[in-house]
Please model this.
Amino acid sequence: MTDLIRLGVSISSDLLERFDKVIEAKGYVNRSEAIRDLIRNHITQTEWEGDEETVGVITIVYNHHIRELMDKLADLQHDHNTMINSALHVHLDHDNCLEAIVVRGRSSEIKKFADKLIGIKGVKHGQLSRTTSGKDI
Amino acid sequence: MTDLIRLGVSISSDLLERFDKVIEAKGYVNRSEAIRDLIRNHITQTEWEGDEETVGVITIVYNHHIRELMDKLADLQHDHNTMINSALHVHLDHDNCLEAIVVRGRSSEIKKFADKLIGIKGVKHGQLSRTTSGKDI
Amino acid sequence: MTDLIRLGVSISSDLLERFDKVIEAKGYVNRSEAIRDLIRNHITQTEWEGDEETVGVITIVYNHHIRELMDKLADLQHDHNTMINSALHVHLDHDNCLEAIVVRGRSSEIKKFADKLIGIKGVKHGQLSRTTSGKDI
Amino acid sequence: MTDLIRLGVSISSDLLERFDKVIEAKGYVNRSEAIRDLIRNHITQTEWEGDEETVGVITIVYNHHIRELMDKLADLQHDHNTMINSALHVHLDHDNCLEAIVVRGRSSEIKKFADKLIGIKGVKHGQLSRTTSGKDI
Model:
């Protein structure tokens, strides 16, 4: 943890009033936390636009009955084991599985790996959630 | 214009340092303006998630040589003339036109109109830019 | 699994050529799978725009040293236990944790729950990944 | 215009049924056009992720009463006149203006220009709509 600074932001009373309504509806208890969240989101987006070291969660949904699909997914993940931190496997129903895979690396490498996973035949839906290592923010 | 208020935001020195780097790269001259932009973006997003009165810009790219396409686009726009503020027509090349159409209304109605325009055969690409009336922000 | 149908799509040779290049770069082995992925993405987006029953993954990154944060996160998750399928906890470094929470429910309820989690003081970054139950797609 | 090809796509009857419902709701008159739109969207996204020559529309909303803002906006646009194709100016109300600026260039240059415009003090909201030149798609 680092020193806390008190930052002064000049803002019109109209804008502040509307912001207060929006963040109250979202369940924020104070403005500072809401503004820090906006700042951290903005930094995280920038990390992903550049090619910085970051953290992502790849979510895929697939039908585990499809022949050789489980093998292909396992092979591809093992080829990228240095990027993968861990994975959660959920049985959505008789046919469908969801996997949430936490990955770490340069944003370009994470994107490439996500593209490969999502492109495998039998993967119905895939998405890359662009989050952060939390370091220094 | 309304009264300017000085708002105090507590923030760690590490987070502030990273934020300063990001906004400097984007060309911001001061933090207050960058933070107000984040707040206004957040309010604008919320306007669009709810079904509030707002402003959008629909951009479409199409090949004007396609038979009856210009007529269909004109008809659909005239059916929605109360929503349309104005439009810009650009000749991209011998075949392709771009139209940027400024619309005003409830977000659900703007989305429906945009879907219709983009769905017309011959429209190659369409996108809805979700902006704001600027009122009170 | 249901019957496979052979669907005919008319497409210009130029467009097809560019599409082939794009999907080859993404690692797709055939066009049908790439087109089915585009279709399934589109359906999934529509599920989330409407208020249908669906599946999401909420990712949060937080500093577990912050007083009472772990308790607040646990309390909020227990209040929504009927929505939560399971969760993965990752230790990113000495301070930071990542949690990936798989939730099921109407899209509006998932969004509300995600907003609450992300709004808790101490949660540095949060994101909702909008996926699907995989049913019928 | 190039040759039309008939492309065969194998798809399950369940998936096709759901797709038909979605595209009917969006006003599409046939599946081929809906699938071509998905393909063209995908290609356009890829153009923007790479650093290809493309077309964008920058939308800004600002209060024209702010001192020197109009001059700053005009100066910045003139410095980028080779990128700018044309612009539409809309008077939203007594205070607020919207400008939709059609730009052409490499995606990285368009993004940089958009960041600069949006970062100017007095610009309330800005957005970059990522469209296409329409060439070969």
